[in-house]
Amino acid sequence: MKHIISKTALMLPAALLVPGMAMAEEAPKLNSGDTAWMLTSTVLVLLMTLPGLALFYGGMVRKKNVLSMCMQSLAIASLMSVLWVVMGYSLAFGEGSSFIGGLGKAFFSGVGYDTLSGTIPETVFATFQMTFAIITPVLIIGAFAERMKFSAVMLFTGIWVLAVYAPICHWVWGGGFLGDMGTLDFAGGTVVHINAGVAGLVCALVLGKRTGYPKEPMMPHNLVLTMIGAALLWVGWFGFNAGSELAADGTAGMAMLVTQVATATAVLAWSVAEKVVFKKASLLGACSGAVAGLVAITPASGFVGPIGALAIGAAAGVVCFCSVAFMKKALGYDDSLDAFGVHGIGGMVGALLTGVFVSSSFGGAGLADGMTIGSQVFVQIKAIAATVAYCAVVTFVILKVIDMVVGLRVSEEAEREGLDITSHGEQVLG
Length: 430
What we know:
By secondary structure, this protein is mainly alpha-helical. It contains 16 helices and 3 strands.
């Protein structure tokens, strides 16, 4: 992802003072085509959360909790928007250390209508990045669905986006040490998906299993909603991946192509694996396969070609199916809507295979600075390890502190009655 922020109004006077400087170093100019594409991409990514992810998750929970999932999605989106303006953007993309940005851009200080980030307004870039900060914590709620207090959800996600998301975003995209190390993450394999998946797993482990799980049946209440949500995610993901080029160019076009190819391949791979193992291919499985493919191609989307997309999609479909079908039962945790199995595992698959298929021998963009496939994969492994370790530890600490302050989990009575009524005083009729 490109991150070049400049102030045109400040650069022009300096250029006039030094003869020839204006010719040698042209000030960045706004490109209306790039800007139009990024405005569209920003809307597409927001569509992924509202209503995409809200419907995807809402259809997968039991009927008594569907409104709570929608409410959490809407409330988190609102909270993240405010926090991003207050300090999240500055911590992620402001000038600072290799670990975290400073507060120079707090409250969007210095971000005006004439400030550019490359060839687009910085306001557009900052809002585009805001949509990433919105969807990442909303992904996490799938892991602890149906059992966390609403107050705890808001406290946790608010602290988490500043203490976990913003630093890791800075590491990779904001001038931090993972970016300097050569980590390849075009649109958020580590920053968004591994980050959210690991946080979700920690949440599931700390909160414990849903009451009655796994003895009582906990069937999705409306898979039509889930299918609609998955379709909205798929469409919105073109903004997520192709938009991360921050320009309307050939790389964005290839990112869009490989996103479609990998996602379709993952749907087929998951469905075939499900048919082989369980003798039936389900709609829920196909929707989960689509999301797994979308997740896995995210870090690779600007670096690989169609051959890489086919391989990444196939691997994501099979590996994520196995993680959901077998790993959760074997390890005994209750990741309600498979946030870790799809986003965490899918993000790791995509991050690793990015290091393989970026090679020009597979139709990719070619390894930077002459790195070999093996060395790039090793860089990707180090980035995954750093993300997992930091996210797991800090997420655990945040949860424990919140548990001491307001408590994390609703009562057993409230859980059995459903969070729609007990937390929000509403219910789905009919």
